[in-house]
Design a protein that fits this description.
The chain has about 600 residues and is an alpha+beta fold. The protein has 13 helices and 30 strands.
Length: about 600
């Protein structure tokens, strides 16, 4: 009967702790009139009052119910939301902390009430009490960590907007010829299709990690480059390799891109050996030759294409140099700028041209700043030639050595996305003034083991997509910063490269695995984001643990210097014999390094 009364009190919104106190007072009043009561009757009274203390059981039931609610939060219910705290998107940060404290206090009070009371019937030893207290303290610490983790993951999120595309009305409009030209664009940017992305197939040909993917402008061909030093041109729709050739590089191929408006006949490439090479392809599915057009003194990770030019592009290297390359010139390479912070050179990992203002380009590398330059206004005596710089405010004076591994402009050039090593992904407004802070922050993934890419997804840059060290692919809604898709990518554990199709809803990805994976929105039901919370928490804990030990233990500039020093110590005859074996034609450039060689072949080495 006591249990029934206790449950009715909880369901009616009453306090769980009042009823035991009232029952205890009743027992004391009843026993107060009997002065000759023995110790055994007191023990019986305590045991009887303890039987009436039902709130602990109710608290456990409530905790189980709460955990079930959190598990249900992983399912999207057609809304595309994920929430780590109930109604987390509608409450303030202070509200989250207050609710976490109340919840934690309730758990601790329940544990205290559940502890055995002292008296003649208490048979446990003091050692057992100490062990129980230590276990409870450990549980309290774990609860505190979980609450802090959920508060961090739930911060800086916005409400997810309603769907902007509906299948049935859109199909009806297309059937009657209304807005039919917008149909494909709206489909590609629909959240419902992003939530239905699933693996369609694999392209298998390479024998090393696949570091680069690039669709031609029409989307019919896909170029891939690998640590095996080879480039493959794919007819991805039928999953067949149409052309495979030796890149001419001496170390890991980092990028291979079709030049626009070239009829898919010109491919620009860069690699760890610092060379920038161009491959001329024939209509008969063969490679005519490859030519070296520039040489960095360190690894060259990225190329930046000018949207309307079939013969000019930019390159960036770990030597802090940006080359402008024009294939129409006798000496194609022109040194545009040496990126510096003060008097110190900043090695570069990434570069991208503004698609709306093609004279402007952004670079990122071995510090926390995104730098924007204008090719028409570069004066290294004036602010080192920088037009404007962006950086998250909390990283400006941070002691941790954060690097920018990749950055990209949005489709219209108004936004700039930057992925930081062992940090998060940040969205900047490229039209803001110098020094402006970020607009959005995307978190949950891990970017530590390799130079990881990031990209926009959708014709109007509606989503943000990135790989992770945990082997998963993350897609965030750009506006709300909420994860709307979460897919298992590489079995090797790291996804580096993500290339959305230029016209269709789908993309290609690659990483430490030796294959290329193709994704399309063919799943019957939207994703349930199963296991997302656990993976996000694991990534955050590993990042926090590694931040203490973070450092440039494997500095690639130092490795490059050592390898070059060893190569220079070889006898001149050996060097001449090595040079004679390189029969590729190459253009000379006064700005190119005299060193053509690079470090030994190292697969997927972290930069």
């Amino acid at each position: 009967m006591a249990e029934a009364d206790g449950k009715s009190t909880v369901l009616n919104g009453g306090s769980e702790e009042k009823e035991p106190e009232e029952d205890q007072h009743k027992q004391e009043d009843a026993s107060g009139s009997k002065e000759g009561q023995t110790q055994s009757s007191q023990d019986e009274t305590k045991e009887a009052s303890g039987d009436k203390s039902v709130p602990d059981g109710e608290g456990e039931t409530g905790a189980n119910q709460e955990s079930e609610d959190e598990e249900d939060m992983d399912s999207m219910d057609g809304s595309g939301l994920y929430s780590l705290t109930e109604d987390g998107e509608r409450e303030s940060e202070g509200g989250r902390r207050e609710r976490a404290k109340e919840k934690d206090g309730g758990k601790r009070a329940a544990r205290k009430r559940n502890r055995p009371s002292g008296g003649t019937n208490h048979s446990s030893s003091s050692d057992e009490d100490d062990d129980e207290e230590e276990d409870e303290e450990q549980k309290d610490e774990e609860d505190d960590d979980d609450e802090a983790m959920e508060a961090w993951l739930g911060a800086e999120l916005r409400d997810l907007r309603g769907p902007i595309w509906r299948a049935v009305p859109s199909l009806r409009s297309r059937e009657i010829g209304r807005e039919s030209h917008q149909f494909v664009r709206r489909v590609c940017g629909a959240r419902g299709l992003v939530q239905r992305l699933e693996l369609q197939g694999r392209l298998e040909r390479h024998t090393g990690c696949v570091n680069t993917l690039h669709f031609n402008p029409s989307g019919t061909r896909l170029a891939s480059g690998s640590d095996d030093l080879r480039v493959v041109i794919w007819d991805w729709a039928i999953r067949r390799a149409e052309l495979e050739f030796d890149s001419g590089h001496k170390s890991n191929v980092f990028q291979a891109k079709f030049l626009p408006h070239s009829g898919d006949s010109t491919l620009a490439m860069c690699a760890r050996d610092g060379q920038i090479r161009v491959a001329e392809l024939s209509a008969t599915q063969r490679c005519k030759n490859t030519k070296r057009v520039a040489q960095h003194k360190g690894a060259a990770h990225k190329l930046a294409l000018e949207p309307d030019s079939p013969c000019s592009f930019l390159s960036a290297g770990e030597d802090a140099v940006v080359f402008g390359i024009d294939l129409r010139l006798d000496r194609p390479a022109n040194k545009l700028v040496v990126v510096k912070e003060g008097d110190k050179k900043v090695g570069l990992y990434t570069i991208f041209v503004n698609p709306a203002k093609t004279q402007q380009f952004a670079v990122g590398g071995r510090d926390q700043y995104v730098r924007i330059y204008d090719q028409r206004k570069i004066n290294e005596n004036d602010n080192n030639g920088v037009l404007k710089k962006f950086c998250p405010s909390h990283l400006v004076s941070s002691e941790s050595k954060t690097n920018i591994t990749c950055l990209v402009y949005s489709h219209d050039g108004t936004e700039l996305l930057a992925s930081y090593n062992d940090e998060d992904i940040y969205l900047f407004d490229s039209n803001h003034s110098d020094g402006a802070d970020y607009r959005r922050r995307y978190k949950g993934h891990r970017n530590n083991a390799t130079v990881k890419g990031v990209n926009f997804y959708g014709p109007c840059s509606e989503f943000v997509v990135s790989g992770s060290d945990c082997g998963h692919i993350y897609l965030w809604d750009k506006y709300s910063a909420r994860i709307v898709q979460f897919m298992e990518g590489d079995r090797g554990g790291v996804v580096n490269c993500l290339e959305p199709h230029p016209h269709l809803p789908g993309m290609a990805t690659s990483g430490l695995d030796h294959d290329i994976k193709l994704w399309a929105p063919t799943a019957e039901n939207p994703t349930g984001l199963k296991g997302l919370k656990e993976v996000m928490k694991k990534n955050k804990r590993e990042r926090d643990d590694d931040s203490v030990r973070h450092g440039d233990q494997y500095d690639t500039q130092l490795l490059w210097f050592l390898m070059r020093h060893m190569r220079n110590r070889r006898p001149p005859r050996a060097r001449r014999e090595g040079a004679d074996t390189d029969t590729d034609e190459s253009w000379s450039s006064p700005d190119s390094s005299e060193e053509e060689g690079g470090p030994d072949h190292v697969q997927c080495m972290s930069s």
